Amino acid sequence: MTGKAPVQDIDEDATAMEVGEPKHWAAGVPGVLHSMVPAIKDMGLSRALTLVTDMNQKDGFDCMSCAWADPEERKTFEFCENGAKAVTWEATPVTIPTSFWAENSITSLEGKSEYWLGMQGRLIEPVYKPKGSDNYEPITWDAAFALIAERLKAMDSPNEATFYTSGRTANETAFAYQLLARTFGTNNLPDCSNMCHESTGKALGEVIGIGKNTIAYKDFEKADLIIIMGQNPGTNHPRMLTALEEAKQAGAEIVAVNPLMEAGLVRYKNPQTVRGILGKGTGLADQYLQIRAGGDGWLMKAISQKVFQAEDARPGTVLDHAFLDEHCSGLDEFREHVKDLDHEMVLRATGLTQAQIDELAERYLRADKVIITWAMGLTQHRDAVRILKEVINLLLLRGNIGKPGAGASPIRGHSNVQGDRTMGIWEQMPEKFLAALDKEFGTTVPRAHGYDVVQSVEAMLAGKTKVWISMGGNLVSAVSDTHAAEEGFRKVGLNVQISTKLNRNHLTVGDEALILPVLGRTEIDMQAAGPQMLSVEDSVCAIHSTRGKVKPISPLLRSEMSVVVGIARALLGDDGPVDWASFERDYDVVRDHIEHVIPGFDDFNKRLHADNGFILPHGPRDSRTFPTATGKAMITVNDLEYLDCPPGRLLLQSMRAHDQFNTTIYSLDDRYRGIKKSRRVIFVHPDDLADLGFADGAIVDVHSEYTDGVDRAVHGFKVVAFPTSRGCAATYFPEGNPLVPLGLTALGSNTPASKGVVIRLEPAATAGGADAAGAPGTLATAGR
User: What is the dihedral of CA 400, 405, 407, 410, to 10 degrees?
Assistant: First the structure.
């Protein structure tokens, strides 16, 4: 063992925070040091080098920290800083001993931070919290499976169970997992996509017929213009910076649209080049628009109006008439809609100047090939679906879908969240998929839609959920309205968490709970047929293999597939229509079934073994065919909302720090934003601080305001003056989640609207700014 778990927890008192100047470039030598030094320290030199050199390679394992696409030609070091941190966190040799469970009650663990919980090491044995007990205790695998089956069978309806999935689950496991839920009788299959890119799927599904990326990796270097909206690649998917650098070197212009100034969008020092190590690196954003939160749709609509005006001035030379006539509907209605666009409203909604908008319009008009790429800065607004439809409107006007170097590019944040949806992890899969399942397995799966994430929390609060099973994830921390989620989980009869490490959701439980430890992606998955290979789908619809490379940290661990099969066999038996045992014995069997059920997976096993895997078919990208209600791409008329913010209030967005992945915290530092030793921070424009009467560095309580009248608050946060757009503020996820009401969701997608919360700041009510909950790392909420 090369490391050990911390004995003492970290101090998250905001008064201990150190604040420096934010950075104006990303990666470089510090990126290497911050990735490799911890990896070697925590895993040892041999284990660290084995894993980082196999990460994202053709015969290696897929990085679990994002869904960025792999280039056809891989570099020797095809990983980023945060990928190395994710591997170090998962592949640690530190394990939780059996004695831990008797020595630490659930109540005592609730006072620990998310960081401390994760740093205790790998889970290596199944444990069970009996009813009335405050401690977990070891349990055998067979007993755990029998208990789950018994509780599921005792329910009045299969819909009293919910099967949640995080985005790290591989395709084969996801397919088996959804088949288990549906064969049992429910479509309650919420997943992390409900909280991030559901708005993308809804918008793109309606207007182009498929809710996925319309470009390939190589399109970045072919583009004339790349517009990056609501996205921070320097932290959330750093390997994207290399693709952007290649695009710049090939002549592309880049425009960043983001309320905050982010280092990775300003300049990139590629640590694998001399220029990146010794030189200044590559400047990325030619134009940086610090937009007011929620104003993105108004910006897109204003640029569309400029396109029509240019066409009127130079008829036949601006719009792509051939493309529009053959492949699109709704052009005339949209032209009429934007003709009288209220420019004062555009400036008010975007917080930009007319000169800034005109400059972007000029860039768009002179570019023949345009990519617009986005992440959760667009998808987590109340008006997100309509905002994204405006993005597609602008792309369609000049034929920027279905041609090289152009398209719509939503970037997924979790390794296989897109693949999970392809495999059927969705509460409302279409009839075609469900009918194919019935045909393949001789079943009759349910058709009624199930719960998404927000509906799942509402069902728990209403006492409608008897059994919760989670394939990975930490939903209680990840979802909005933390206090409501905690209350809901404590009403669940049996909470089953399939995990690699300890997290907050293991402590927020009702009568009974199980923690089932599984292999990490880095570990060899040995089954009866030999070492197994899995597959994932990245952001550009590429399917490729992933194979563990190191011996499992404990012989007690089972693969995710083994756990799904264990539950299925205990619940459904071996005499039903699905041969579950064969699924576990050889994953090729699962892939054969996937091939029969899901279009695009022809010769799945054969093609997966090819060097680069394969690309799923995509009508809009491949042939400009659009499987929509009209058979064409739909240019839409959208009446956008204006996100009003009363005087003395701010619009809050939540975001990741640099040293984290979703709810996994690697440290309390965020070096790109100049923050050290605490995460209890709220970033505000210095002029807004002056108007509100707060000094830079003041300790405040943050209250959100919503129509239900509940006073949601977090306490003891340090205000930091930061270059963000006026009237806007930002704090870290998940610390800011208690401020996001459960009922505040995107129209049409029901995604939590975490990027547009009205807040007020008040002087800290507690001595020294300590959290009112009294425990490091906890989140205090008032008025509930």
Answer: -160
Domains and CATH numbers, the chain: 99-196+416-610 (3.40.50.740), 198-410 (3.40.228.10), 650-769 (2.40.40.20)
- For the stretch 156-174, pLDDT in tens is 999 999 999 998 899 999 9
Side-chain-side CA neighbours of residue 259 (13 Å): 31
Could you report how far apart the first and last alpha carbons of the chain are, in Å? 45
Contact 54, 61 (CB under 8 A): yes
In the block, residue with structure tokens 């009839």? 431
Q: What is the mean pLDDT of residues 126-136?
A: 98
Q: Which residues contact 668 (CB under 8 A, 6 or more apart)?
A: 10, 12, 115, 659, 676, 677, 678, 679
Question: Is pTM, for the whole model, over 0.90?
Answer: yes
Q: Which residues contact 126 (CB under 8 A, 6 or more apart)?
A: 138, 139, 140, 141, 144, 514, 515, 516, 517, 556
Is residue 32 very low, low, confident or very high in pLDDT (cuts 50, 70, 90)?
low
- Average pLDDT over every residue of 703-725: 95
DSSP secondary structure string for all residues of 512-523: EEEEEEB--TTB
| Residue 69 burial class via C-beta count within 10 angstroms: exposed 0-12, middle 13-18, buried 19 and up | buried
401: DSSP letter: S
| Dihedral, CA of residue 81, residue 82, residue 84 and residue 85, to nearest 10 | 120
> Residue 656 is encoded by which pair of tokens?
């990741």
Whether the Cβ atoms of residue 81 and residue 27 lie closer than 8 Å to each other: yes
DSSP one-letter string for 587-614: HHHHHHHHHHHSTT-TTHHHHHTSTT-E
Which pLDDT band holds residue 11 (cuts at 50, 70, 90)?
A: confident
- Residue bearing the bigger pLDDT, 664 or 40: 664
Q: Which two tokens stand for residue 298?
A: 């108004």
- The CA distances from residue 338 to 300, 306, 392, 401, in Å, are 11, 9, 15, 21
Cα–Cα nearest to 209, from 766, 524, 623, 671: 623
Place of tokens 């505000």: 684
Of 41-45, 655-659, 736-740, the poorest mean pLDDT is in: 41-45
| CA distances (Å), origin 107, targets 81, 135, 136, 205, 271 | 35, 8, 11, 45, 45
Does an H or E element contain 138, and which?
strand 137-138
| pLDDT band at residue 76 under the 50/70/90 scheme | low
Peptide bond preceding 97 in cis form (omega within 30 of 0)? no
Q: Which of 518, 510, 508, 513 is nearest to 479 (CA)?
A: 508
